[in-house]
Automatic annotation (TrEMBL):
Gene name in the database record: CFAP57
Keywords in alphabetical order: Coiled coil, Repeat, WD repeat
Protein name (record): EML-like second beta-propeller domain-containing protein
Coiled coil: 769-840, 877-974
Source species of the chain: Oncorhynchus tshawytscha
Domain EML-like second beta-propeller residues, every copy: 367-641
Amino acid sequence: MSAVVAQCHYSFGLQRGVANNLFYFDEQTVIFPSGNNCVRYNIDQKWQRFIPGLERSQGMYALAISSNRRYLAVSERGERATITVYDLQHEQSRKRKVLNGGDIHVQEFVSMAFSTDSKYFIGQSGAPDYTLFYWMWEKQKVMAMVKTTVATNPVNQVSLNPYDNTQICVSGNGVLKLFRYAEGVLKQSTFHKQETHNFLSHAWMSEERVIAGTEAGRLMVFESGDLRWDMSVTTKTAMSQDPDSNNLPIYHEIKCYQISFITAYSKGFACSAGPGTVYLFERTDDKDNYRKTREIRIPPDQCSHEPSHAEQQQIVSLVISPSEETVVTSTDRGQLYSITLSSAEMSKGEQVQFEFLSHSFHSGPITGLSVCIRKPIIATCSLDQSVRIWNVETNTLELYKEFQEEAFSIALHPFGLFVMVGFSDKLRLMNLLIDDVRTFKEFTVRACRECAFSHGGHLFAAVNGNIIHIYSTTTFENVLNLKGHNGKVRSIAWSGDDSRLVSCGMEGAVYEWNTLTSKRESESVLKSCSYTSVTISPDAKTIFAVGTDCTLKEIQACQILREVPAEDVAYTTIAMSRSGRTLFTGTSIGTIRAIKYPLSTQKDWIEYQAHSSPVTKMVITFDDQYLLTVSEDGCLLIWKIIDKEGRGLKRDKEITYAEEILITKSDLEEKNQVMLELKTRVEELKMENEYQLRLKDMNYNEKTKELSTTFVRQMESLKTNIQILKTERDNMEVANQETMFEVMEKHSKELQDMESANSQKLMLEYEKYQELQFKSQQMQQDYEKQLQQMDENKTAALEELTLYYEGKMQEKLLVLEQCQEESRIQAREFEESRKQMEEDGDREIQDIRVRYERWLRDERETNMRMKRDTGIMKKKFSSLQKDIDNSNVEMERMKLEQQKLQAIVKSLEKDILALKKAIQERDETIQDKEKRIYDLKKKNQELEKFKFVLDYKIKELKKQIEPRENDIKEMKEQIHEVKQDEFNIRRKKKSVPTFALMEEELDTFHKKNTQGELDIAELKLKLTTTDKEMHKGLQKVRDVEALVRRFKTDLHNCVGFIQEPKRLKESIRDLYDRYTQQSDVVRHVDPNVQREYARQRDHLERNVASLKRKLAQDSVVHHADNVKIMQENVTLISEVNDLRRQLHLARSQVYDYKSLMGKKGLKQTNTLKALLSPRANPSNMVVRLNEEDEGDRIIQLQRLEIQRLREEIQVLMKIHPYRPPSTAKLPSLQTNT
């Protein structure tokens, strides 16, 4: 039986947090990280190839590709940061070289780049050193290194000049530097300091020109270190219209967006411009500036409950295909989008939007995974609040929907038509429709972390804390409740025949339940281990469990048969194939292990690089063809299960997948209606097209007739022209033949003349040749004679020279013998001097030996002292090293605290925004109150004006009354009593209307004042209630935030005991006792008590409802009584006022009678005229006096009302002393004095 292996088949997801995480390999293939792999994805054929990461890697940090697209560099984190270079032209993308920091300890490389010729490579390390390395990477040789910045100004990107391999650009927070490699050193070029800008990205536009983007949304072009062009990328919108400029819109700047990525291409460059936006810039005619030509946006997601959230994604990478036809981008939420530039150019004036490159991926940790039997689909759920349905055969996303709550678990029904999802508030059973995921049943299970359908589909299990509920799929009744776990249940698994259920919990217990009797059939408790996942063998006899103790346990009959250690790596999940031949486990570092069964105590597994975060779920399909894994990194990996020969596993029986889908009746009717409408529309279009075709045929027939007639005319004219040309051609042929004949005759004559002349020339040349040949023979004979003479002279001279040099040689031999004799004498003298020098040297050596032995003794003593000092220094060094390690741990702890504080600050900023919004609303209400106060002040001002006018009239009337009173006294003496009575009657008739008018105005003023007081009292009540509600809400928010902060702090302290299970258990129990209220604990009460409670509750609710109805009726009657009493009060007040007026009139008449009865005079006629005139009417005087009194009284009342309003304003100011000023100020009141 051959071993089983897993081969990575397909991946759904993009690894976030990787710099430069997207590249084009060729026109149809892109490269991006997914999990702990680099994926080569063919856009047209939809296949994927994988480049796995290094073992024990902590994840990728940055990518880089060479200019010729042959080499890929991957930066990975680990004990030491490494850079791996892969050869992409090799079929398996084999590893070429591994680069590191050498003697310098580098934690991570944040940015990398190849040179244009792919010979050199640069890498920028991260904090705290920020060292730039310059490699000749094929020889793994570091050419140079330099520190680019300090820890407070991090570097974001480095790049090599594509036109010069020795020039490097470095950009970051307050950093924009150019370095040049020369003489083995990286030297910084002259460049202006840019400490105020945070440069997020840059790109080379030419040999001397660099364009950089800042966090504040500015594009800056530098040439040779000088700023040449600067532009702010802002978004504008028309907010209002200017009436003085022909209704032109006035634009206001909304926000400056950060430019996180820039890429250059032949026409210009493309850059990100804020959330979900990409701008395309092209060079202008002067080649120095750039203009924006196109804006491309990420479209809203219609499957989300908030479609606008997709538009807020930040662009993190942007690439253009080699042919510059397609733009592909990646976002901070792990999505890939693309657009064809030709389509963007064609849609002028329209909004251009990206499209998904392949599918929409999860943007958060995946918490749930499930498969079914009848369909080749996968269901996943994530903390990004989405549920997605994938097809494992076509490798596509079939359904996708986002909800308003986070999803913690998911389970597919074996038929593939239903899905169970555990949300934070409820457990929902949903239908998988043709284009939607729709809820049709909810269960009150909060934050269900595990749920699973039985293999038959008739039951499903849901975990609620430490209790497992089993429901019927058909009746939705709670069939069983499995109780026994003391800790939270982490995993459940059904047996093949659904008669048993296996569960494991955090308290270290593994239980096997009988699903018919709800009894425990077996148990295994190991308190030192907190189990995370469990599975059961196909024969339901063996249980396999993994937990935090880094071992795989095989359990049978309540006993642990075998424990397989995992080598310091914790297993997080486990799955067994249906054949029972292989176990697959997921680890906390993201790897997958295939373990052969039966288990061996030794290392007998194959490990695969899969994810960059802990594996959360793992499932094998029912036909044993695929292994599915999901992780906290948001990626879904599909593994093909094969044997070592590369063949798929044999299936026990062929599975035929169902093709049925669910659709609601309303959707079906709507689609049928749409189809009918479309059919009618097609028929109408057919008729319309036929009509248009007939019209076009008629037009074309007419045009063809016109064209045929014109062509016939043209043909006739052309025929006549051809006939004329033929006659001309014949004439020209005759003339040409004649001229040809003449030319031939002339040519023959000239040829004969030339032949005769050439024959004469040849004869002359031949004679010259004979003469030259004779001369050459004579010259050859002369040269031979000269050579013979020269040979004879040479032999004679040689003999003379030999005789001369032989004599010379004899002389030299004699001189040589003399020299040899002299050398022997000198050798003897040298031997004697040598012996003497050796003796002197021995004596000196002895002296030196003595001296150096003494020096060596001293040095040994000093060496011993130095060794003692060295031991002391080593101890000091070790203590300092421990201090450094402790300080590093403290720094890490402080960093974590800083991150927590930053999160707290962010939450507080959100609270501040909410409070500011509430304050703004209060400002608006206060502004309304101030407007009301301003209106009252204005009314008061008008009343004061009215008072001033009345005062003036009173003074005028008093001036008129004084002389008239004297006249009246004289006239009253002469008036008769009867005539005076008639006069008084007429005066009374004339004065009643004026006095009644004044009383009506006074009543209206009273009514207005009372209504104003009622409105003010009502507004005060509303204001006090809203203040109380606001304070209560703020107090609740502060209490909840304080509780969350305390819980986070306690949880952080609890995590510190992760290596100590006992203390961890105690701390978790303390957390549970401290933060779990009695209402959170699920209690099971006696059904009789529940029924009695429900009966009493219904009785009390009915009593409350009847009392409410009675209260409403009483309130209506009471309101009617109040209205009636108020009406009666109004009538009584009016009657009292009438009586007062009559009393005033009676008193005035009595006064007049008394004054008239005492005096009589002679001027009776003049007196009557004067009394009959309106100026001298005493009733008018009484009315004027009453009007003056009423005016004073009204003014006094208004002053009291103003005083009361001012006191209320003072009270409000004391309640809200720190109220911000209102946006608009009311004009000041001007009073007339």
